[in-house]
Amino acid sequence: MTTHTEEMTLNMGPQHPSTHGVFRLKVTVRGETITSAEPIIGYLHRGSEKLAEGLAYSQFIPYTDRLDYMNAMTNNYIYCASVEELMGLEIPERAEYLRILTMELNRVASHLLWWGTFMLDMGAISPFLYAFRDRDHILDRLNEISGARMTFNYMRIGGVKWDAPEGWIDRVKETVELIRENIHDYDTLVTGNEIFQARSKGVGYISKENAVNWGLSGPALRASGVKFDIRKDEPYSIYDRFDFDIPTREEGDVFARYKVRIAEIYESLKIVEQACEQIPDEGEIIHKKGKRLMMIKPPEGEVYKRAEASKGEIGVYLVSNKKKEPYRVKLRRPSFVNVEILEELLIGQPIANLVAIFGSLDVVLGEVDA
Amino acid sequence: MELMPMVLYAGVLLQLILAGVAAAILFERKVIGYMQLRTGPNRHGPWGILQTVADVLKLLIKEDIIPHAADRKVFVLAPIIAFVPSFAILATVSWSENLYAADLNIGVLYFIGLSSVTTLGVLMGGWSSNNKYALLGSMRGVAQMISYEIPLVLSIVGVVILVGSLNLRDIVFFQESIGLWLFIPQFLGFVVYMISAIAELNRSPFDLPEAESELVSGYHTEYSGFRMAFFMLAEYVYAIAISALATTIFFGGWLGPDFLPGEFWFLLKMCFFMFVWFWLRATLPRARVDHLMNFGWKVLIPLALLNIVITSIIKVWMG
Amino acid sequence: MFRLLKGFGVTLKFFGSKKFTILYPDEKVEMPERFRGIHRFFPDKCIVCNMCVNACPTDVITLTGKPHPDNPKKKVIDTYNIDFQGCILCDFCTEVCPTAAIVMTARYDNLSSYDRANHFKDIDWLSSNEVYGNYTIEEEVDEDEAGEEK
Amino acid sequence: MSEHLLNLVKETIQNQHGEEAVEEADMNFEKPFITIWSEHWTHSLAETLRDGDEFRFDFLSCLTGVDYEEHMEVVYNFYSFPHDQYLYLKVKTPRTSPSVISVQPLWKTANWHEREAYDLLGINFSGHPNLKRILLQDEWEGHPLRKDYVTDKKAMGLE
Prior knowledge:
Number of domains of chain D: 1
Protein name (chain C): NADH-quinone oxidoreductase subunit I
Number of strands of chain A: 8
Pfam family, one (chain C): Fer4_7
GO biological process, one term (chain C): aerobic respiration
CATH topology of chain A: Cytochrome-c3 Hydrogenase, chain B
Shape of chain D: elongated
Keywords (chain C): 4Fe-4S, Iron, Iron-sulfur, Metal-binding, Translocase
CATH class of chain D: Alpha Beta
Distance between the termini of chain A: 53 Å
Oligomer: heterotetramer
CATH superfamily of chain A: Cytochrome-c3 Hydrogenase, chain B
Number of helices of chain A: 15
Mean pLDDT of chain A: 86
Number of strands of chain D: 7
Low-confidence stretches of chain D: none
Family (chain C): Belongs to the complex I 23 kDa subunit family.
Strand order of the largest sheet of chain D: 1-2-5-4-3
CATH superfamily of chain D: NADH:ubiquinone oxidoreductase Nqo5 subunit
Strand content of chain A: 5-15%
CATH architecture of chain A: Orthogonal Bundle
C-alpha cells in the first residue's frame, strides 16, 4: 500500500474568530506547518483617499477617525498637523497640551486593547475583559472631553474643538494612577506565565535589517532593536518638552513585541502625568483661522508629515492646489505596512504560531483597508 | 443487581447527570464571569439559574444541519459514540457507601478503558465533517487524548499498588482504614493525574482541539443543534466523571465528617475539582501542540513512572 | 519556575472584587454633557441658512424652506431630514449652526429598528427627540426640575 | 545639512543620467525634494540611494502616486536611520501609459505600496512580482484615484 500526503489550502478569514476584523489569510499547510501564506485585504475598503478629494479640508477629519479606530486621536492629529504645516499655523499652547494628553491616553487605550485581544488569541480569556475594563476608564475621559468614545473628531485644523471640562485634568491624573496599579496586576498574570513565554519566546523572529527593509514601524520595529520613535527622534507637536524613554528589545520575537508595548504603556502614562503638570491653566485652544470650519484654504504645495501612532508610523502626504478640497491625500497607514511582512514571516511556522505572530503585529483592519 | 433496578438506576442517573451538566455549565460561566469582573448569566430565572435550560432548549429546536459533503452515517454516529462511554463509565462510581451501580472488581480498568472510546467519536466527527478545521482539530484531539491517556493510567497505578485492588470501592475503604486521603502519600501521582486529566478532557489550557482562535471550533465546527449538544454533553459528563474518579481515588470518596451524608461530601469534593478546572480556564493561556506533546511524553510519563517506582519500593519495604 | 502560579492569585483576587458590568437595559451609562448622540432639531430657531447641509461630510441632511408668512424676505424651515443610515454623528452640523437650531442630545439608543428605511428621520421626529445633556432649553429645564420634585 | 544632501543627490543623478535628468530640485519644508522623469529612475540609482555611504536610505517610509492630469507622479519618501535624513523623490511618468520601475527588490515594503498605487491609480510598476489589485476586487473597472474617474452615483448604478 502506498501513501501520499498532500498540502491543504486553509482560509483564515475573512470570517474567522481571530482575524481582528475582515482579514483573509490564505495559507497552505502540510500537516500543521505553513508552507505559504498570502494575506488578502480590501474587505473593509471605503475609499477614504478618494472621499477626501471631494470634501473640504475639515470635513475629512471624522474620516480619519475611522482608519485606526482604536487610536483615532493620532489619526486626527496627523491629518490636522499636515494641513497646519501647509498653512504655517501656530498652534496655541493649551491646544498642544490637550492634543498630547488625548493622544497619549488614546495610545494607552490602544495598547491595552491590543494586550487583551492578543491574549485572547493566545487562548487566555480573562485578560481581554480586564483590558477592556481599564480601557473604559480612558474612554470615559476621552468621552468627557471630545463627546465620543472611539470616533472622537476632536482635533481641528489649528487646534482642538473643546477645552477640557472642569476637573478633567484631575480625573485624568486619577485614571493614570488607577491604570498603573492595574497594569502591574496584569503583568503578574501574564508576563511571567511559562505557557505564555513558551509560546512567544523565539517565535516570529524579525531581524533588524528585515524589519527596516519591510518598512515596519512602531513597537514591531523597536522590538527588533531599532531605537527609533518619531516622538523622540523628530519631535512633533511639543513632545520635546517631556521626559520619557523609548523601550527597545533586541530579540525581535513575539515576546519582545509584547514587552515593548507593555513598557510603552508606562512611558505614555509618564507623558500624561507630565502634561497634566505642565498644561497652562487657560488660553486659546484654536487658531483663529481654524475657527471657520469650511473656509480653510491652504496655499499650493505638498507636504509629507508623519507621527508615531500606537501601531507605528502614520503619515499623511497632502497635495493642495489652493482649492477648498485637498488635491490628493495619501495616508500611510502603519497596519497596512506592518501586515505585509506576514507572508514571509509565517512560512515554516505551525498554525498555532500563526495567531501569535499575527496578533503580535497589532493590526487594525480599518487601517489596513482605508 | 436485577435488570429492573438497574434500568431504573440508569434512568434516574441520566436525569441527574443532565441536571448536573446544566448546573456545571452554569457554574462554569458564573465562576469565570466572576473572575472576569462580570456577573455571568443573569437573565433567565433568579441568578441566571435557567440559562442553561434555555440554551439546551434552543439547541434542541434548531434546524438539524448535516453538511452536503459530510459522510452522513459517520457524521450522525459520531456524537453518540462520543457520549455513550462518558455515561457508561459512571456505572462504577460509588457516590456513597451504599449508593452505587456496579461493584466491579476491575473498576479502574473499566473506567479508563471505556473512556478512551470517546477518542473515536472525536476522530469520526472531525473526519466525517469534511471540514479542514474539523479535521485538524480532531487530529490534534486524538493525538492529545491518546498521549495523555498513558500518564493518566500510570498515575493511578501508584494508588492501585498501594491498595492492592482495582475496585473503586476498595480504594475508598483502604483510605478509610489508613485514615488518610491518598493524595498525600501519592502527591506526585495526584499532580500528574490532575494535569493529564485536563488534557484528557480537552479543557483549557490544553483545549487545542477546539482552539477557537486557530481552528474556529475544532472537531465540532460543522455540528449544530442537538448533535452539537451531544458533544457538549459528552464533554461535561466526562468532566464530571473524571472529577468523580479523582474524588474516589485521591480524595477519599464519600469520606467526611459524619454530620452530613456521604453523597454530600462526594459532591462537594467534585465541585472543588470542577472549580479548579474553571479557575485554570480563567487564568492560563492555551499551550501549543508541540509543547503539549513534549510535556506529556518527556515530563509527565517519566514522573508517573518515578511515582510507580517509589510506591513499589515503599510497598515492598514497608511489607 | 512556577511563576504561572502567581496568575492564579490575580484571578482569585478578581473573583471576590466588585463587578464592573452594567446591566444595560436596567441601568444606563450616564453620558457626559458633550456626548454626541442623536440630533434634536428646533424648527423655530432655524433660519434656513443651509450651513449644516454644506458642512455635512456624508451628505445626509436635506432641507427645504418656505417664505416667512409675515416677512417675505425671511425664510422658515419646511422640511428637515437626516438619513441616519449615513450619519456618522461627527457634530459638524451643530458646530456650524449659527442659531443652535440643530443640536446633539446625549441619547444613543433610540435608532434601532428592523428596517433601514426607518433610519430616515424627518422634522417631526427630530424636533420631538428627547433632550438631555448639554443642550437643554430654558422651559424644559423648569419642567424637568418640576418633574423631579414630584 | 539638508541642502547639502539635496546637492549631493542632484549631483549623483546628474552623474548617472546627464545634466538635464533632474527636473526640479528644491527644499520643501526643510526637506530635500527632487523631481525626475521615469526613464532616469533606474535600479542602479535606487541602489545608490539605498547603499551609498552618504545616503543610506534604508527605510522607504511611504510610496504613493498622484494624478496631475497632464502627467502622473510617483512620490517616494525615504528616510535614513543611520544618517537621520529625508528625501522626497518624485518620479514623473506620462499619463497615457504610466510606468515606473518597481523598487520591490530593494525595499520589500514597496510591494504593497506599489500594488496599491497600481490599484487606485493604474500606474504600472515594471518588474513587480505580483502586480494585481489589492484593495478593490480583481474585476473592478477603472482606477478610482485618477481625476477622470466617474464617481457619480447614478453612473455607477447606485441610485
